[in-house]
Amino acid sequence: MLDLNTRFELLGVTLYRDADQPEVFFFLPQNPVIARDRAGLMFDLMLYEKGGQADDLQTGGFLTLAISTGLGSLEQPLLRELRRQFGDNARLVSIPFTEGSVRLAGLDTGVAPINPDGSGPPASDPGPTGIRLVEKVFGATVPNLDGDNRAVFSLQLSQDGAAFFADLLEQGRSARPLIAIYDLKYTGLMEVESLRIEIDYSRVYDFLRTRIGFNAIVVAGEIDTIVEELRDNQSIRIDDTVRSLELSTPEALAERQTRIDALVKDLATGAFFAPSLKLGDPAVEESSVFAPPAGAATGMFQQGLPAAIGQAMGQAVTAREMATATDINTPPPEPGEGTPAPAANSQVAQQSSALGHPTATFTMRRLQQRELRHVVYDLSRTTAMQRSTGPQNPLLFMGSEREIRARIHKISLNHPFFARLRIDVDAGGADFAAEGIRAMTVNLRYGRRPDGQPKETADVILDSAEDRASFVFARDPGGDMGYDYQLTLHYLPDFGLGDTRQTVTGPWTRTEARQLSVHPSMLARRQPITLALPRVVPPDLSEVRATVAYVDPDGVIDDRRSFVLTPGGAPAIANVRFADANDAARITAEAVFADGSAEPLAEEMRPDPAGAKPLDLVVLPVPQRPAAQFSVMLSDPLDELRSVLVDYEVRQGGTLIAAAAVEVTEPLRAVPVTVVLPNPTPLPEVRLRERRIFDRGGIETLDFHPLTDGLAIVGVPAADVMEVTMRYLGPPMATLGVLGILVTLKYATPDDDPEFRQTASLFVEAAEPARWVVRLKDRAARSFTWQATLMLQTGQQRALPEVTTENSLVLLQITA
User: Fold this and answer.
1) Is residue 400 part of a domain?
2) Compositionally biased, Low complexity: which spans (predicted)?
3) How far is the C-alpha of 145 from the C-alpha of 562, rounded, in Å?
4) pLDDT 10s digits, 485-523
């Protein structure tokens, strides 16, 4: 096993010696590069195109490449130098890694998506605000963990991504659009240190989340400062118990402190950080290639990935290592959050410049619940410890022009042998219920075999407006794009009148349409005819009985439907299925009136022979009959009537036409009366008589009088009512020797109309008010007279002067 205390560098390569075999030297992997074999660089760019509908092209591509971390040409010089320094038996071997991963990534600002596969919104990040550089992963895999740690990737490219790589490679640009990052773990022996290191993972984790946040880029220099802060706040504690003469000098103490600091930094780095991107200026000016469109939040290509290759590759991004469902420290994504907007290349370059273009960067790991514990590293004995390394490097697509062009493969998927004819069939938005059909069957046929039969056939049954189907036929080489279709309609039983066939099949029709939308009107003619009454109809009209009959000149079809229309009711709709262009519908009707009589209406034809009337509407005109019409309205301002019976007589030319009665019970509601006359002339004469029925059981019968207006007001007449309130003001009447006050009220109109003469006597004996309601003939004539008589306790009466007033509030007082 390798000895972690023997680390040294030779020719720029980090080496360890084996703890048991001093002649064995382990080397850390070098920065990743594109692997090579006998055929050259191990990458291939495959571009494809395929013709689509309407002459459009579907294009895209795939990029496959292999990367490795081997020593390459440095292996032999390094081995010679080892043998020169340590003897001819020195052997050079790769570190046996226990686990590892490698990913292709880019650089962005913001927060990475929450799911490892790149889907979902960004995770909620409690870290600091402002621009932070984070890593976006485009693909990840596991290397072979042996020798050169080779890993193979296959990336799917969008149309623009394929064009980007094709142009980049064909022009021979020495660009580095992809960045490879390894994360490898290995185990080695650590010698006796007499040292205890305690790390409170939970406190450290909370500190880092607040200090830098998830996925933020941290340079190697910052980790020194972070570890020092963790030691200051006691999240990391060091107990150095060694006591030896070797540490008696300041130089020895300084050297040991340096070793302890490096050990603590290694432990903290491996536990809480993962290798990430190297920051630096891009090898090519990408702003002209990847500039996002104005007003768009996504990048140039279909997924809008913020980094250069991310914008070119048509696949989702993911973080290197994301929290699982058991990670209670990762808040759930906020609803509606989207992927952060990409930062411009200039922002990345400025950030990189501010950090001094470091050569090693890291991101914060996401720890699971089981890892948040208090850990003690006891280095008082030889211990096997895990270490990690993260070689990373932009991948240079560099080779000779001939070699690069040999790696680009352009493929056309439009081979004539595989040509296809795609046909999409739908119901054209047909209303199946309104059309009276339960289904439509579409049969297709394409091409001809030597025996004359169709080469390709298909059929579909459409049951609703949303139904659709797609068919793909193998095209005949050199053949046309046309095909035949046949439409069959399946009608509901007893739908409409006219054509009674439940299945109607059309002829075979030739077409080249790729989108075939079928509709019942393509095969059969259905005509809805609305039957309606005019807005104004005779008041005594009860209903109109209409019949729609199918007119077939050949006499093959005999079908009819009957409908009943009522005043104020909904129109009727007759669905007519015409079997021939010469057929028609005949509409006949009769009006039925309240007295039981009926009158035929004018016949209508659809289509109209004269072509002047609409095809889908028939208004049935109902003629007005000569009639005496008037209305009766009840007036009961004092609410004293139960009802009024109104007897009426109608005479025309001295002859009695009608004599009847109508009862009105609801005040202020007009009750119409219609009497049909035998002749329009002469004008009729109408006389009325009232029989007032009072609530207390009394009946008052008036004389007949001629009707002079179309509205007869019956009952108790009044233009308005006035309520008079009488209230006593003063000390209790008993203290003044008064039993009460008798108030006599009188009302008369200015013309002394006997219909409106009203009197009342009210006795007021306390402070409770008394009220009198009086009917007014004229709203302006409100004058009335009242007189008070004092009823004394001695049995005597004293009449006060009579008072005339219009005030509806009367105040009663007792004077000496």
Assistant:
1) no
2) 336-353
3) 89
4) 999 999 999 898 999 899 999 999 999 999 999 999 999
